[in-house]
Amino acid sequence: MTDLSAIYNTRILELAAHISGAGRLEHPDATAMAHSKLCGSTVTVDLKLDGDRVVAFGQTVKACLLGQAAASVVGREIVGSTVAELRGVGAAMRRMLKDSGPAPEGRWADLGVLEPVREYKARHASTLLIFDAVERALAEIEAKRAAPAEA
Questions:
Q1: Burial annotation 93-118 (CB, 10 A radius, 16+ → b, else e)
Q2: Which residue of 68, 102, 112, 120 lies most exposed, with the fewest beta carbons within 10 A?
């Protein structure tokens, strides 16, 4: 099993200390929250899209270091991302943690620092909260767009 020092390393501490996108948006297209019953962590996100691309993002993160580190990377990289890219990154994180898949690549490569978490199933939920919240917000936007316009 991975040593806990591999999980709570200096890079994770640095990411958690500098969460990008902290704060809320005044007029988001959607707001969504994800909560871990196991540890009590909560992440709330606000999203604004132009077409299928994120143009504004805000978040409040009340989570452990792992959740904070993941939220930090997402907050730094999300603006300019497409809906498909965000769903792909979330899927890659789930595969990395649950199925020993590879870490995300490209501008999302910093998420690889969380790879040792795969050995600690109890930490998966808090690490994935940001992805759960973003995907819920995306689903909310898509549902609003699909709903018939009121006359």
A1: bbebbeeeeebbeeebebbbbbbbbb
A2: 102
**Fold of the domain spanning 4-142:** Sufe protein. Chain: A (3.90.1010)
What tokens does 16 get? 């958690």
The CA distance from 32 to 132, in Å, is 9
The H or E element containing residue 47 is strand 42-50
| Cα distance between residue 119 and residue 117, in whole Å | 5
The DSSP code for 144 is: H
Helices (H), 54-123: 65-77, 83-98
- pTM for this prediction: 0.92
> Does residue 4 surpass a pLDDT of 70?
no
